[in-house]
Amino acid sequence: MFYELIAVLVAGVAGAGVVMLLSKASRGRLPRWAIPVGAGLAMLGASIASEYGWYDATARALPGGVEVVETHASSAAWRPWTYAWPMTDRFIAVDAAGRRENAQTPGLYLADLYFFARWHPTQVVEIMVDCPGQRRADPMGGDGGDPRWREVGAEDAILSAVCSERAA
Predict the structure, then answer these.
(1) Which residue blocks in the chain are alpha helix, DSSP H?
(2) pLDDT digits (tens, 9 = 90+) for 120-168
(3) How many domains in the chain?
(4) Over the stretch 48-102, which tens digit does the pLDDT of each residue have?
(5) Pair (125, 43) in one structural domain
């Protein structure tokens, strides 16, 4: 976050500098108020680029075997451009390569789910996936009770990732 703040400030200085150069090149024909406007537009552009680039940069940085299974795009009134181009602000990834098979039940795996959200720490949750039964046990809070299974079918992205041949 600190580096993004520095990048926005540098963009503001650069935007003001460009407008000052344009003013000099036009022999002072640009109004003086154009300099802070140029700085503000550059800062806004850098901030927007940072927001839209977060998902791609974070997803690219995931280690091998961890794949994105779900994304969430959002729009907000204070960012009116997101109504035209929604911004991905959170996603779920599964560590399919790190899955662990149950010794007593073939086809039953434990896998880690990673919940990524902009401006929030990453959360890691362990889930159980029953590949032959096409179901999964969602996190319950670690109370030691029996898992609550949910039938999800073969089209479920988490089930597909954990049960695929690539995960082996």
Answers:
(1) 2-25, 34-60, 157-163
(2) 999 999 899 999 999 998 766 666 667 788 898 888 999 999 988 655 5
(3) 2
(4) 999 999 999 999 999 988 999 999 999 999 999 999 999 999 999 999 889 999 8
(5) no
Can you read off the two tokens belonging to residue 130?
A: 């029953």
Domain co-membership, 71 together with 49 = no
Instruction: Give a three-class secondary structure readout of 30-60.
Output: CCCCHHHHHHHHHHHHHHHHHHHHHHHHHHH
Which residues on adjacent β-strands are paired with residue 70? 92
3 state DSSP class of 143: coil
Phi, psi of 5 (to 5 degrees): -65, -45
With beta carbons less than 8 A apart as the criterion, state whether 118 and 51 touch: yes
Question: Between helices 2-25 and 34-60, what is the axis angle to 10°?
Answer: 140
Q: Are 72 and 117 members of one domain?
A: yes
Rounded distance between C-alpha atoms, residue 168 and residue 164, angstroms: 7
Tell me if 54 sits within 8 A of 78, measured CB to CB.
no
The range of the structural domain enclosing residue 21 comes to 1-61
Q: Is 133 exposed, middle or buried (0-12, 13-18, 19+ CB in 10 A)?
A: middle
pTM for the whole thing?
0.81
For residue 95, give the 3-state DSSP assignment: strand
Given a contact cutoff of 8 angstroms between Cβ atoms, the answer to whether 14 and 42 are in contact is: yes
